[in-house]
Amino acid sequence: MRNRFSCLMLVAFHLFTSHLLSDVALLSNVALGDDPLFSEIAMDSVFTTAAVASSDVATRTEASGFDRITGPSSLTTALESAGFITKQNKERISIKVENAGWKFPVSMTIDVEADRIECRMSLVKIDPGSVSSEMVLALMAVNKDVKDASFVFDGDEKMIRLQTAFTNRNVTTKELKRQLSNLANVAIAHSDTWIQLKTKSTPSSDSPTTAETRGTSTAASTPAGQASIFGKWAGSLPSDASIAVEFGASGTFKMVHLVGKKAAISSGTLVKNADQLTLSESGKADVKFQIVSVTSIEMQLRIVDSSGKSGLSIKFLKANP
Question: What are the Polar residues biased-composition ranges (predicted)?
Answer without folding.
Answer: 211-223
